[in-house]
């Protein structure tokens, strides 16, 4: 290859099955048009109840059609990127850019220090020049337990990093690696490294359980003195400690190789100053050093890399050039101790006053979903984004394992998305003439999660009650108009299942995915909508709920057995249980109509066939709810109070519907 020949770092390819997707989408659109024609042509002229229920169902179907069209447009021209990692050295040689990796934690009880340590160690073990890699931990809980765990991580990294490099360890989190890997042959270091990790883990967990740093450890590092001045986790000075200084020639592992920089930061917090939750933590760190074809993927959550200029408010210009040589020649000569004191002011409560931080620079303040509004503002400054999904997972995270944690997490996300849509950052307006229309629509697909709640609730509740009342909402089974309803439902879900299986999922996994789809829309999205309305009216304040990353042994065991965890009382569970009981009663009522009147059974099936089928599908989806309500005896079952309330609410709704 010629020395000056351009070497592409990735290749763009069309997603497989694109033509099939377009044909199916076009046929579904045609089916939707026929459904709309049916709703208009056969509008009931009879009773008032029939007319209003028909109108409500028609509006719900119009919303589902709009939202389906919105997501389909975003997927119409999907592409994938194939990276060529080995070409990095060909393109840049030794002039690779420096990378800062941010890790955030906020509560040592909900996010155990031993888990944080594994995250940090996996980041430090990246296959990247260590002298150009810096890992920053933002501890918004200001906990000396987390700081102690970081000291342990810094010490263990001297053994773990060369072990990862020598034996190409996957995954690079020691907990995940030693839990899944069997001892390889002819690797003498394996038992000793595992023993060192388990000893470190035991020390961290013991200290966390006791909630106290042993005296002999307290005296080993000057950083612990900072906690002598800490009033509480919401009232303390900036705590900044450089645990490994990558510039120091003595910062090496057991084989003499340089180590990446490791920094601990607990930004200053005072009761009289708003700390802006996770966005504020990320900005404090900044202040101290598949839908690409739409114009770039949306930035949603973690697992991404940003150019520093993009996050710091700089607009992209055509003549912009990233000068790696100039950047890499930028050196800081201060000693670590002096640098710590110098940088503390940058993480103080008052540093951002009268600046554009949180508005034009860094992560945007004022939203629970700081990631999506920040990504939107960055892209509106002409920076482009790219989605990479390499064969080897770039990032692995921890997801909630109980249903309530999942629903609460999605409530926060959904609330944040809706607030973005209703603010000046609405993608349709804020991104006008700045980013492509398809990218703005891609953001709206997430921003409008919450708007699905009312249409979904209507479709879950009203057809069931109308079935008991004897009101027909769908065409007869013998009518040709049943075909578009059947085709749209079948083809949409069949393609969804095929896509799920093609991506490596299972049929059971797809079924559970449909359950979560229903559960989120009828609870998380509903509560997020109400919270947003209350906030807009001034009756509620912005809050940030931390999702717990730890569960007890019994819960973990039930999770491994694929059992949904209920176990506590919650208004969300009241809704789920009531809807489940309601559709069960509706199904019983339909079966009674068919079996009790043999002469009219076929007529009932013909007239109410689709409504009965809808109820039975919802009953099938809610099978885990029925098990938790009536059959399970473990601690993960539905609480008795939820069972009683749901039965009463469902019976009351059925009684009112019938009479």
Automatic annotation (TrEMBL):
Q: Where are the transmembrane segments?
A: 20-40, 52-70, 446-468, 566-588, 608-630, 642-658
What does the record give under GO molecular function?
A: cellulose synthase (UDP-forming) activity
Instruction: Please name the InterPro entries in this protein's record.
Output: Cellulose_synth, Nucleotide-diphossugar_trans
Q: Which GO terms describe its cellular component?
A: Golgi membrane
What compartments host this protein? Answer: Golgi apparatus membrane
- The lineage's top-level taxon is Eukaryota
Residue positions of the active site: 140, 371
GO terms under biological process: cell wall organization; cellulose biosynthetic process
Which positions in this protein are listed as binding UDP-alpha-D-glucose?
A: 111, 140
Q: How does it sit in the membrane?
A: Multi-pass membrane protein
The protein in question is named: Cellulose synthase-like protein E1
Q: Has UniProt tagged this entry with the keyword Cell wall biogenesis/degradation?
A: yes
Q: What this chain does, per the record? A: Thought to be a Golgi-localized beta-glycan synthase that polymerize the backbones of noncellulosic polysaccharides (hemicelluloses) of plant cell wall.
Keyword field:
Cell wall biogenesis/degradation, Glycosyltransferase, Golgi apparatus, Membrane, Transferase, Transmembrane, Transmembrane helix
**Taxonomic lineage from the root:** Eukaryota, Viridiplantae, Streptophyta, Embryophyta, Tracheophyta
**Main location (coarse class):** Golgi
Transmembrane helix recorded as keyword: yes
């Amino acid at each position: 290859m010629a020395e000056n020949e351009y070497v592409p770092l990735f290749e763009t390819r069309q997603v497989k099955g694109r033509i099939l997707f377009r044909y199916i989408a076009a046929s579904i659109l045609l089916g939707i048009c026929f459904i709309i024609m049916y709703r208009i042509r056969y509008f009931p002229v009879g009773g008032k109840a029939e007319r209003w229920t028909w109108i409500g169902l028609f509006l719900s179907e119009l919303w589902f059609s709009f939202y389906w069209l919105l997501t389909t447009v975003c997927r119409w021209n999907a592409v994938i990127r194939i990276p060529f990692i080995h070409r990095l050295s060909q393109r840049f040689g030794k002039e690779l850019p420096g990378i800062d990796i941010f890790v955030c934690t906020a509560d040592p009880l909900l996010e155990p220090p031993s888990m944080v340590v594994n995250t940090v160690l996996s980041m430090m073990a990246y296959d990247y020049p260590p002298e150009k890699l810096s890992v920053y931990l933002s501890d918004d809980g200001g906990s000396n337990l987390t700081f102690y765990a970081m000291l342990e991580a810094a010490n263990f990294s001297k053994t773990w990093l060369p072990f990862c490099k020598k034996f190409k360890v996957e995954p690079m989190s020691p907990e995940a690696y030693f839990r899944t890997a069997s001892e390889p042959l002819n690797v003498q270091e394996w038992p000793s490294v595992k023993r060192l990790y388990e000893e470190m883990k035991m020390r961290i967990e013991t200290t966390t359980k006791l909630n106290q740093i042993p005296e002999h450890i307290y005296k080993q590092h000057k950083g612990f003195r900072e906690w002598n001045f800490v009033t509480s986790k919401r009232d303390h000075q900036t705590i900044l400690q450089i645990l490994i200084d990558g510039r120091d020639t003595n910062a090496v592992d057991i084989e003499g190789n340089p180590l990446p920089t490791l920094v601990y930061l607990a930004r200053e917090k005072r009761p009289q100053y708003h700390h802006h939750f996770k966005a504020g933590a990320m900005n404090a760190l900044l202040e101290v050093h598949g839908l690409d074809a739409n114009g770039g993927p949306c930035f949603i959550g973690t697992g991404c890399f940003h150019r520093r200029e993009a996050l710091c408010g700089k607009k992209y210009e055509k003549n912009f050039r990233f000068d790696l040589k100039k950047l890499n020649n930028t050196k800081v000569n201060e000693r670590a101790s002096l640098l710590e004191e110098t940088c503390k002011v940058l993480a103080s409560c008052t540093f951002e006053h009268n600046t554009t931080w949180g508005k034009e620079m860094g992560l945007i303040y004022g939203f629970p979903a700081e990631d999506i509004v920040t990504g939107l503002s960055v892209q509106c400054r002409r920076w482009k984004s790219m989605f990479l999904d390499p064969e080897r997972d770039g990032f692995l995270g921890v997801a909630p394992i109980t249903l309530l944690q999942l629903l609460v997490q999605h409530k926060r996300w959904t609330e944040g998305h809706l607030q973005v849509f209703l603010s000046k950052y609405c993608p349709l307006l804020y991104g006008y003439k700045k980013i492509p229309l398809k990218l703005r629509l891609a953001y709206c697909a997430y921003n409008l999660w919450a708007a699905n709640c009312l249409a979904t609730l209507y479709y879950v509740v009203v057809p069931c009650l109308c079935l008991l009342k004897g009101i027909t909402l769908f065409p007869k089974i013998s009518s040709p108009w049943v075909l578009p309803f059947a085709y749209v439902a079948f083809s949409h879900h069949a393609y969804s299942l095929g896509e799920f299986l093609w991506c490596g999922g299972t049929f059971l996994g797809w079924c559970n995915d449909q359950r979560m789809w229903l559960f989120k829309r009828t609870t998380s999205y509903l509560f997020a909508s109400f919270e947003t309305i209350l906030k807009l009216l001034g009756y509620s304040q912005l809050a940030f709920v931390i999702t717990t990353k730890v569960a007890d042994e019994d819960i973990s065991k039930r999770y491994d057995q694929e059992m949904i965890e209920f176990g506590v009382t919650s208004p969300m569970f009241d809704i789920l249980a009531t809807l489940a009981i309601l559709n069960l009663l509706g199904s019983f009522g339909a079966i009674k109509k068919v079996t009790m009147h043999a002469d009219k059974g076929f007529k009932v099936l013909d007239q109410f066939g689709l409504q009965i089928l809808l109820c039975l599908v919802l009953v099938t989806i809610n099978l885990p709810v029925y098990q938790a309500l009536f059959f399970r005896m473990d601690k993960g079952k539905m609480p008795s109070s939820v069972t009683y309330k749901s039965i009463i609410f469902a019976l009351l709704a059925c009684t009112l519907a019938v009479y």
